[in-house]
């Protein structure tokens, strides 16, 4: 089970911050989330929304191990 | 050094500590960002900053390292709030020490531009019309682009 986290507006849309989800890859996880929730899915597919796997930003599909942590992050705004 | 704080920060105390026993530096530049009471004419009653503890500090430390590599500085401190920040309260404090002022000014300016556009924070403003998530403005990205060096 991968530990999945949502930040910012994605957390509000999803209605949850953290979930344990049984998945094998980032693309499979994203497909599952888009199927479950079309509104969240549309936002996840927007430019500027990225996945962070084990605290490293990824821009391609990756295989996920059971203990991996996957965060979905919208565009940032610090300072 | 970078720090993520979930309680109010005191820029005066942070600056006093930063300049203490600093015989090596001839210049310290500091910046404090505050929560405004309005954005683009829309009233703001409070700001909530979401962060990703662990990754947020990791990216902030990378931005600090980039600042140190790029400018001739002696020390760098960046302290960033997360959680609920009331209007008028500090969100971010940056201080840079250098032998001479020019590199201290430039490094602080650079680090703030990077924090605005790269540090993992997400801002939600509450106002009389409800809540809204806000992103870095085009001006913030234009500011950060000033530092891109030609190939």
TrEMBL record, chain A:
Q: In terms of domain of life, where is this protein from?
A: Bacteria
Q: Which SUPFAM superfamilies match?
A: MoaD/ThiS (SSF54285)
Mind telling me which InterPro entries this protein's record contains?
Beta-grasp_dom_sf, Mopterin_synth/thiamin_S_b, ThiS/MoaD-like
Q: What Pfam families does this protein map onto?
A: ThiS
User: Under which name does UniProt file this protein?
Assistant: Molybdopterin synthase sulfur carrier subunit
State the taxonomy lineage: Bacteria, Pseudomonadati, Pseudomonadota, Alphaproteobacteria, Caulobacterales
UniProtKB/TrEMBL annotation, chain B:
Q: PANTHER family under this entry?
A: MOLYBDOPTERIN SYNTHASE RELATED (PTHR23404)
Cite the entry's keywords alphabetically.
Molybdenum cofactor biosynthesis, Transferase
Pathway, per Swiss-Prot/TrEMBL?
Answer: Cofactor biosynthesis; molybdopterin biosynthesis
**Family recorded in the similarity comment:** Belongs to the MoaE family.
Supply the EC number(s).
2.8.1.12
Query: What does the UniProt function comment say about this protein?
Result: Converts molybdopterin precursor Z into molybdopterin. This requires the incorporation of two sulfur atoms into precursor Z to generate a dithiolene group. The sulfur is provided by MoaD.
Keyword Zinc applies: no
Q: Which GO terms describe its molecular function?
A: molybdopterin synthase activity
Q: How does it assemble?
A: Heterotetramer of 2 MoaD subunits and 2 MoaE subunits. Also stable as homodimer. The enzyme changes between these two forms during catalysis.
Matches recorded under CDD domains: MoaE
Query: Which Pfam families has this protein been placed in?
Result: MoaE (PF02391)
Q: Looking at the keywords, is Transferase present?
A: yes
Q: Which GO terms describe its biological process?
A: Mo-molybdopterin cofactor biosynthetic process
What is the designated name of this protein?
Molybdopterin synthase catalytic subunit
Q: Which InterPro entries match?
A: MoaE_sf, Mopterin_biosynth_MoaE
Q: Which reaction does it catalyse?
A: 2 [molybdopterin-synthase sulfur-carrier protein]-C-terminal-Gly-aminoethanethioate + cyclic pyranopterin phosphate + H2O = molybdopterin + 2 [molybdopterin-synthase sulfur-carrier protein]-C-terminal Gly-Gly + 2 H(+)
**Which source organism does the UniProt entry give?**
Brevundimonas variabilis
């Amino acid at each position: 089970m991968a530990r999945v986290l949502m930040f910012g507006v994605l957390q509000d849309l999803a209605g949850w911050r953290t979930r344990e989800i049984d998945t094998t890859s980032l693309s499979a996880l994203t497909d599952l989330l888009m199927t479950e929730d079309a509104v969240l899915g549309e936002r996840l597919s927007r430019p500027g929304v990225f996945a962070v796997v084990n605290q490293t930003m990824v821009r391609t599909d990756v295989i996920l191990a059971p203990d991996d942590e996957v965060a979905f992050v919208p565009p940032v705004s610090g300072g | 050094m970078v720090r993520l704080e979930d309680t109010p920060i005191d820029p005066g105390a942070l600056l006093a500590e930063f300049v203490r026993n600093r015989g090596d530096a001839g210049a310290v530049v500091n910046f404090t960002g505050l929560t405004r009471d309005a954005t683009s004419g829309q009233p703001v009653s409070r700001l909530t900053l979401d962060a990703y503890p662990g990754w947020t500090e990791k990216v902030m430390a990378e931005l600090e390292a980039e600042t140190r590599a790029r400018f001739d500085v002696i020390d760098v401190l960046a302290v960033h709030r997360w959680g609920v920040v009331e209007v008028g309260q500090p969100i971010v404090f940056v201080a840079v020490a250098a032998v001479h002022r020019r590199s201290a000014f430039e490094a602080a300016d650079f680090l703030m531009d990077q924090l605005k556009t790269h540090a993992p924070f997400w801002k939600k403003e509450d106002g009389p019309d409800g809540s809204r998530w806000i992103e870095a403005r085009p001006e913030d990205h234009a500011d950060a682009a000033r530092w891109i060096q030609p190939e």
